[in-house]
């Protein structure tokens, strides 16, 4: 209910795109305008008036400042929707270009400025490169505007949607006003132009059809999930405003967040596919996958906020939000605070999974003081043990891997279980008698670590899983007894039983692909099986630790509750195309004994192609890298200064140094840092807790870039012997293990390459990594043209 004289004002999805491009002073005026308008839309200073001549009679203009006008759609009573802000001179001309409607399929309000969409479609450049003219690109230039050579008969290019009728597109939910244009586009580039300012459903439908998805599939997967079950009255804007399909902000502060910069937009406008996943009621564990930058973390954050909002009042932390790395957990906390405020954060335990396991073990007091050891040190302990025992049949590397991957990896905690354990991916077959020997050696080894006060993260995860599973079993026994004995039992309740309960109501996991079976066992035992218990997001193509899990075998059944996001918000399609090429033709699991795919993964952002260049020596590569990074920094500074002066671009976005340099080894990190310093570039390493300084060029090993994002990324040292590292040669005898190591190494490069938002450069010295295109074959990386036809350009220019 509105107070007399006051109004509601919301911002329609996609209107923010244009508003964000306005000069900063105008954006400031928009903030002020919205407060004034909400307070009193009749305020004479606002000069609210209907735009006569626009179909429907509900489009108004109002004064933002002397040069700009807001366009507002009146939904009924005192409810308005801000759909655009335009220079005064452009508002009153050619009014028929403003189209608004209630979409018949979704029942949501849509607004289109035909002039903006048409000009974005028409300005679509043929091909995608900026200044590149390779033959592949030229071959794609079948642009209608280009006159045909006189002696070659002109063949009219075939429209992309020639196989569809207007009625079919309408049935799929394409906005009525855009149907003629949609049926005309002939190239992907024109299509990208068209969808940029089009309503989201139109965007999704057209992109999917262009991907080759059939009519029925699009109807089932894209349209049906957002279709309304009500009968749509296309003149009732009040009802339409109330529907979730009207993608508009809800809170007063949201308009500001949405137009601030494109990187805070996620807080306000979820894509319908994301929104649906956040809000859905799940009858058990659910999983969301999707390529890099498709908003999996954003969905997880919103899901946590959504679940927190539904908790009964209280102060306890009833939601666990966890991930693999410590620095990412810190980042999740920061972003959740931004999204939901302290009230939400207060109800959520945000902690990386190994720290959680350590806390659980420590609480039992079973441990005493211990020191962590990593794999290297553990291997040394194995060697020492074998030497002391005079054992020669088994080598340290094999036993350590067996302990990690089979015993701890599958949370096997008895000899009998080990006899039954699956050894998939371990290569060499072993007999039952040999298993008995190995089990004995493992027991000796763990005793040795105990005596020396040492432990590994995997050991702690397994122990925590065991402790928590015992607790869960106790709860089940208790509840069974309670059901049987009822009140009688309550009278004789012991204290230790009275306090039995699951620690959390909901568990949400980011970067799920990196968790081990023991982690999953732990998480399963932390929350009661049932509605909305576990929600996982992750991408197995980005698995960079040696952890593999089959969720169903661990009691986590996600069947029927899996979804995949496909639209990247981070990376341009040029970078995405090249990054996909790095994955080769390997097959990827879906965390559940089946395969995962990135089909349909795409981006509507565009930018320059990634470039790759080789050097004779590491020194020469380093020199060129330093020069390039210095030039990038300089360019950014100049752009920021120009933007500030012209106030035409978002200064805040430009001012940030957002450059990352990834290299394969720690030594190379130090060398890059030193070399950049000599070039006068401020560089900071990325440690386990994240970047050591915000305002600097970040340098780290490939592993450290997981979950981060940068405007520009350089990946150096992508050289044979380094990517993949030479150490994997030791597994040549064991082809399965070797293959897994190669795949993990590909993933690492893929993760680093997809951190780049706008620019990606890759360099190597000596002989290039076999993962790079055109090295193994001349035809380019398989799958690179899946998205864009983009192959790496191998030009003279560096990056
Ligand atoms: N609906 C959205 N609207 C605008 N921006 C979005 C949206 N969803 C995600 N983004 C932006 O896209 C970028 C990538 O999102 P996010 O980190 O959630 O992706 P991800 O799938 O978890 O990526 P990765 O697998 O690479 O870690 C972020 O900058 C985020 O703000």
Automatic annotation (TrEMBL):
Q: Where is the composition biased (Low complexity)?
A: 142-156
EC category: isomerase
Keyword match Isomerase: yes
Q: Which domain of life is it from?
A: Bacteria
Q: Which Gene3D superfamilies match?
A: P-loop containing nucleotide triphosphate hydrolases (3.40.50.300), RelE-like (3.30.2310.20)
Annotated Gene Ontology cellular components are:
cytosol; DNA helicase complex
All residue ranges annotated as the UvrD-like helicase ATP-binding domain in the record: 269-604
The question of whether Nucleotide-binding is a record keyword is answered with yes
Q: Which is one GO molecular function term here?
A: ATP binding
Residues noted as binding ATP in the record, renumbered to the chain: 290-297
Q: Where is this region: Disordered?
A: 120-156
Q: What is this protein called?
A: DNA 3'-5' helicase
């Amino acid at each position: 209910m509105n107070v007399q004289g006051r109004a509601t004002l919301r911002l329609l999805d996609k209107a923010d795109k244009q508003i964000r491009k306005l000069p900063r002073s105008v954006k400031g005026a928009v903030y002020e305008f919205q407060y004034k308008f909400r307070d009193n839309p009749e305020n004479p200073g606002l000069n609210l008036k209907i735009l006569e001549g626009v179909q429907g009679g509900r489009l108004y203009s109002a004064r933002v400042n002397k040069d700009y006008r807001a366009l507002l759609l009146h939904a009924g009573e005192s409810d308005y929707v801000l759909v655009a802000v335009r220079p005064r001179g452009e508002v009153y001309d050619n009014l028929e270009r403003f189209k608004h409607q209630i979409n018949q399929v979704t029942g949501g309000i849509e607004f289109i400025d035909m002039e903006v969409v048409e000009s974005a479609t028409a300005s679509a450049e043929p091909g995608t490169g900026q200044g590149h003219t390779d033959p592949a690109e030229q071959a794609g230039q079948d642009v209608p505007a280009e006159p045909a050579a006189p002696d070659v008969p002109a063949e009219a290019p075939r429209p992309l949607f020639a196989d569809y009728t207007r009625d079919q597109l309408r049935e799929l939910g394409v906005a009525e006003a855009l149907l003629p244009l949609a049926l005309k586009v002939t190239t992907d580039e024109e299509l990208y132009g068209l969808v940029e300012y089009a309503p989201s459903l139109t965007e999704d439908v057209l992109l999917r059809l262009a991907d080759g998805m059939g009519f029925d599939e699009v109807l089932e997967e894209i349209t049906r999930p957002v279709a309304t079950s009500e009968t749509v009255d296309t003149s009732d804007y009040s009802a339409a405003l109330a529907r979730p399909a009207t993608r508009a902000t809800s809170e007063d502060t949201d308009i500001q967040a949405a137009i601030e910069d494109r990187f805070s937009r996620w807080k306000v406008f979820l894509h319908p596919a994301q929104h649906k996943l956040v809000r859905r009621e799940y009858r058990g564990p659910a999983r969301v996958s999707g390529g890099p930058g498709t908003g999996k973390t954003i969905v997880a954050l919103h899901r946590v906020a959504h679940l927190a909002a539904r908790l009964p009042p209280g102060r306890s932390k009833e939601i666990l939000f966890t991930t693999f790395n410590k620095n990412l957990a810190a980042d999740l906390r920061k972003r959740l605070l931004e999204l939901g405020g302290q009230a939400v954060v207060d109800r959520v335990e945000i902690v990386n999974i190994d720290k959680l396991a350590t806390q659980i073990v420590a609480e039992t007091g079973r441990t005493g003081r211990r020191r962590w050891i990593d794999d290297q040190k553990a291997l040394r302990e194995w060697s020492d043990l074998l030497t002391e025992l005079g054992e020669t049949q088994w080598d340290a590397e094999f036993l350590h891997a067996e302990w990690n991957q089979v015993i701890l990896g599958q949370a096997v905690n008895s000899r009998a279980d080990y006899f039954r354990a699956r050894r998939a991916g371990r290569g060499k077959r072993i007999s039952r008698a040999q298993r008995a020997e190995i089990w004995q050696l493992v027991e000796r080894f763990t005793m040795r670590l105990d005596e020396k006060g040492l432990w590994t993260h995997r050991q702690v995860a397994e122990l925590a899983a065991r402790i928590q599973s015992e607790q869960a079993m106790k709860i089940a026994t208790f509840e069974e007894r309670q059901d049987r004995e009822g009140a009688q039992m309550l009278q004789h309740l012991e204290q230790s039983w009275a306090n039995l309960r699951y620690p959390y109501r909901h568990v949400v996991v980011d970067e799920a692909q990196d968790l081990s079976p023991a982690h999953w066992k732990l998480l399963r035992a932390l929350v009661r099986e049932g509605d909305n218990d576990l929600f996982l997001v992750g991408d197995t193509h980005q698995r960079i630790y040696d952890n593999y899990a089959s969720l169903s075998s661990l009691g986590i059944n996600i069947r029927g509750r899996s979804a995949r996001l496909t639209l990247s918000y981070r990376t341009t399609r040029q970078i995405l195309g090249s990054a996909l090429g790095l994955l080769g033709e390997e097959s990827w699991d879906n965390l559940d004994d089946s395969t995962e795919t990135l089909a349909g993964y795409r981006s509507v952002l565009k930018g320059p192609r990634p470039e790759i260049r080789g050097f004779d020596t590491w020194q020469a590569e380093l020199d060129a890298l330093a020069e390039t990074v210095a030039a990038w920094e300089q360019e950014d500074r100049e752009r920021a200064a120009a933007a500030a002066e012209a106030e035409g671009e978002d200064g805040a976005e430009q001012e940030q140094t957002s450059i990352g340099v990834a290299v394969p080894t720690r030594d190379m990190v130090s060398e890059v840092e030193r070399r950049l310093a000599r070039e006068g570039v401020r560089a900071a390493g990325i440690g386990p807790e994240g970047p050591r300084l915000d305002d600097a060029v970040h340098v780290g090993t490939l592993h450290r870039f997981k979950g981060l994002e940068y405007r520009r990324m350089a990946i150096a040292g992508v050289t044979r012997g380094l990517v993949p590292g030479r150490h994997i040669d030791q597994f040549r005898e064991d082809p399965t293990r070797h293959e897994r190591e190669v795949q993990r190494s590909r993933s690492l490069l893929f993760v680093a390459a997809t951190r780049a938002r706008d620019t990606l450069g890759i360099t190597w010295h000596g002989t290039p990594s076999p993962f790079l295109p055109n090295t193994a074959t001349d035809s380019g990386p398989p799958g690179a043209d899946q998205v864009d036809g983009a192959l790496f350009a191998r030009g003279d220019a560096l990056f």
